[in-house]
Amino acid sequence: MTGMPPERDADRLAADRLAADPRLVQVKLDEDIAEIRNLGRSPVGVDPRAPESHVSVARASAGILCFESPTEAATMSLRRIDELPVAERSGSAITAYHLAASRTVAEGDLQRATATQLVFHRPASEAAGTTITLEAVLRITGAGEMWLDSFGWPRTVQNVRTLAFAGSPAAYYEQGLADLANDAPIDRALLMLLAASLTNSGPYGGQEERERLIELAAGRRHRLAAFVSATESRALAVRADSRFGACLYRSMLATLSEDYLGSATMSLLDMEEIDDIDEELRDALSQSDALPEEMIPAGTSPGHWWWYA
Fold this sequence. Notes:
By secondary structure, the protein is an alpha+beta fold. It contains 13 helices and 6 strands. Helix 1 packs across helix 2 (22-38), helix 6 (169-181) packs antiparallel against helix 7 and helix 9 runs antiparallel to helix 11. 38% of the residues are buried.
């Protein structure tokens, strides 16, 4: 990697430790599985011959719904927790993720109901007038068990935007600056800057505002490095997870560099790694289904080719 500082995000340091000592991987997994079991969740029984009752059973039992595998539950919680609004991520990622999934089943709108699957969508509020649609998918087996199958950003066609931006460019920009200044999750800070540009039909703010942003970004360069790595992980997971997350993260990086960092990009972001991400995206997107229009943020530039590939 070129042009990157020696600092790393704490999570990346933890990942390095796990890679260096495989025994730690098992220890961490055992801890996560123990936390899953301590949630006290269990499979929900349903009558497979009475699918008309499945929705009411799901809503009544939302608080105990679980994944079939504790390992899958831990993996999904840690991998997809960043898809939730920041306010719903507090505390343990595993606990927060499951609580948000339960809320989506209990309060969300039913999108699809078949004998073997239920899909619920819930609009969740994020900062500065942003709404994120979350999706919980339940699987019903022939043996009469109902399991949580997936939760996070939608993977199905919907009639509302996955991301809706109803705030002002100024509000989004100020929230992005505040997030950078207060060490809030870096993904939320970059989402706010993306929203500022989308709602402003271009970069927001003048030279003084940009200088302040660059100063704040320089203080978070280790977080930015971790975000670039997270973007690469999402690009590699397109076939398994759908393309939405990879495209969103790539647009957040593009907006940061092109609209706000300018010439400072080379010193704050690893452009070689970003070039690798684009190669991975071209390969993965050519083998995945296109996104419906509702899943592409309104106002997205054709220059963000990954949404349209």
